[in-house]
Design goal:
Helix 5 runs antiparallel to helix 7, helix 11 crosses helix 12 and helix 13 packs across helix 14. Strand 9 and strand 10 form a beta hairpin. The longest helix is centred in the middle third of the chain and has 22 residues. With 340 residues, the chain is α+β, with helices and mostly antiparallel strands. The protein is globular. It has a four-stranded mixed sheet with strand order 2-5-7-6. It has a three-stranded antiparallel sheet with strand order 1-4-3. It has 15 helices and ten strands.
Length: 340
């Protein structure tokens, strides 16, 4: 169990961060591939391991499954796309990379873990060869791990972050914490983070906390720190998956439900499918190839039917499916959805 002691100042500075991006999620995915007991990820893991890239050992070296892995996510924070992540890796401060390397070497020694390979010390070197080696390995593994589905996964994670932010804005930070169960538990003034082994406590001391949803932060949350700016908030990366239904939703579009198409019409059924991935009216219009006014009309009709919820976020109208809408898409109107 990890305990994060949050002062009133920290609670005022809790915020939901943008998802880790392609590079960060790919790095965490490499750790899942190395695990043996991966529950809901087993089918994905077997498929990926059958096509594992030749240079995957580079990632296995720096991202082992135990607690002491090299944090290259913090130095590349804010990079949404893979190209932006690779650029951020090449531009990362040599001092920050040196600090990250020193941290993981020291941490593994304290835990009695196998030492990191010697080549990781070259990550802070001037020639950038080690960084290029990591960048190439990440890109190769990303293509195998996500198989062209990254855009869908990214949209799902962004929608999850928006829902968390909306909960915090409308219902308060305690309710947002409650939504992270069973991974965390709020017992004021302590946020208890589920960890399989004892670890040190955290005291942000007024700097706050950034919470980020992740697909491959599994089976327990991760905490990340900046090694160059002590005033930056602590980052808590929490698993977004709770059950097999979540995994199915995040991993890709549902197969076409011809009965639903017959009921709603092809365009409106398509609109429900797009909204299931989380979108704005503008995004819905673009995906359907219709005008924003027409997309808004489709969303309005689906909302009146109880299949869609909508809310305004800044200057955009966002949409997501309801439990009933999800059940219709899955062709399952069992106990999870009741029509009055």
């Amino acid at each position: 169990m990890k305990r994060i002691f949050l002062t009133p100042e920290d609670l005022l500075r809790v915020r939901i961060g943008a998802p880790l991006g392609a590079l960060g999620e790919t790095m965490l995915a490499s750790r899942i591939v190395q695990r043996k007991n991966v529950a809901g990820f087993s089918g994905w893991r077997n498929q990926v391991r059958a096509s594992i890239p030749a240079d995957f050992g580079v990632l296995a070296d720096i991202l082992p499954v135990d607690d002491g892995f090299l944090d290259l996510i913090t130095p590349t924070r804010g990079a949404r796309s893979m190209s932006a992540g690779i650029e951020a890796l090449h531009l990362a401060s040599r001092i920050e990379l040196r600090n990250e390397v020193d941290n993981v070497i020291r941490h593994r020694a304290e835990l009695g873990r196998t030492p990191m390979p010697n080549w990781i010390e070259e990550l802070s070197g001037r020639d950038g060869a080690a960084r290029q080696q990591v960048a190439s390995a990440v890109e190769s593994f990303h293509a195998v791990a996500f198989g062209g589905r990254w855009a869908h996964i990214q949209a799902y994670l962004e929608a999850a972050a928006e829902r968390m932010a909306r909960t915090m804005a409308t219902e308060g930070v305690e309710q947002m914490f409650a939504g992270l169960h069973p991974h965390v538990r709020w017992r004021a003034p302590i946020l208890e983070v589920r960890r399989h082994m004892a670890c040190h406590n955290e005291n942000p001391e007024g700097s706050g906390l950034i919470i980020i949803p992740s697909l491959f932060a599994w089976p327990e949350p991760l905490t990340l720190h900046s090694t160059v700016d002590k005033d930056l908030p602590l980052t808590l990366v929490v698993p977004v998956l709770r059950d097999i239904g979540d995994f199915a939703a995040v991993w890709g579009p549902r197969p076409t439900n011809e009965a639903l198409t017959a009921l709603l019409g092809r365009t409106r059924a398509g609109a429900l499918q797009v909204i299931a991935e989380g979108c704005s009216t503008t995004e819905l219009a673009r995906r359907l190839g219709v005008s924003p006014a027409t997309a808004s009309e489709h969303a309005s009709i689906l909302r009146e039917a109880g299949l869609v919820d909508s809310w305004r976020h800044r200057n955009a109208m966002r949409h997501e499916v309801t439990t009933l809408g999800s059940a219709l898409l899955d062709g399952d109107l069992g106990s999870s959805a009741r029509i009055a």
